[in-house]
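User: Hi! I'm working on a homework problem where we have to compare a predicted structure to a textbook description. Could you give me the structure for the chain below?
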Amino acid sequence: MKTSWRSASLVAAAAAVLALTTACGQEQGTPTGSQNVGATAAAGGYGTSTTAGNGYGADSKDQAAAKAEPAGQLAVTESAKLGKVLTDGAGLTLYRFDKDTAEPPKSSCDGACATAWPPVPADGAEAAAGVDKSLLGEVTRADGTKQLTVAGWPMYRFAKDTKAGDANGQGVGGTWYASAPNGKKATLADLPGLSVRKDAKLGEVVVDKNGMTVYRFMKDQAWPVSKSACTGACLEKWPAVAPVASNDTKGVQKKGLMGFTRPDGVKQMTVNCWPIYTFSGDTAPGDTNGQGVGGTWYAVAPDGKPVGVSK
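Assistant: Happy to help. Predicted C-alpha cells:
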C-alpha cells in the first residue's frame, strides 16, 4: 500500500547518503574486531534457544496430541503483538512456513515436521468476514491429502497451541509465522520503517517496521565507513535490517541514518552509521531476547548508541 511512496522516498534518501557519510565515526571507543561470529550462547552459539523433541518446536507429548482437525469457518482475530491473525473455527492460530512456496503452492513439511505442525485440511474450510474467499485454495501433499492454502501458502497449526489465542509457534526456527488473513506474515500495521518503542526494562529502543527490536553488534564499526563483522551463520541469526528512507522513520536520530551495501551484496541500514540487525530469537514485537547476548549484542537507542553499555 505504501510501496510507491517508499520507493520514491528511497530515491530521495540516496541523494543524501554522501552528506550523511561525513557524520560516520563520530562515536569513539567502541571495540571493532574482525570476528564474524556474533553471539555465543550455549544452545547454538548465537543466543537462540533449542527446541524439544524432534527439532521442530514440539516434543513427543505435543505431537501425540496433534490432530488434523477440519479448519471450519476461518476467522480474523486481533493480536496486541501481531495485529490481524488468521484462525480456524476453534480460534487456533494458523501458520505459514518460510520453506514452502506459494507460486506454485508446495509444502516442504512432512514426517516429524508435519506431526509438530499439523497441516490444515482443505475440506470444510469456509471464509468468514475479513477473509477473501478467492484466496482460499488447496495443495496436494506428498501423501495425497489436500491441504488448505491461503494466497497459495499452505496452512498449519502448531502442536503447542492448546487454546484459542495461543501463538506459541510464532518465529519458531526463524521460519514459522502466524498468517495474516491475506496469507502474508501477520504483523502490526502502519509502523514506519524505523521508530522508537518504550521498553519497560530498557527504556527507548529502536524497532523496525514489524515492531521488532533492533540491535547493534559491538564488533562492527561506523568509522571511517560502516562495516559489519557479522557474516555467514551469524547473519542468519542476526538478519540485517534493510535500508529505509530517512523520512520513513519516527523518533530516530537523523545523523548517520543511511544504508550501505555489504561485501556479500546485502543492503543494510545504519543508525548513527552503525549497522543494525534484528534477532531470530525474538518471536514477537516487544521481545528483547537479543539484549546482551555474548556481551556483544545490544538494543539500539534512538541516537544509535547501544542500550545498557557502560560509557
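For your comparison, note the following. The first helix runs from residue 3 to 15. Helices lie at 3-15, 17-21, 60-65, 112-116, 233-237. Good luck with the assignment!
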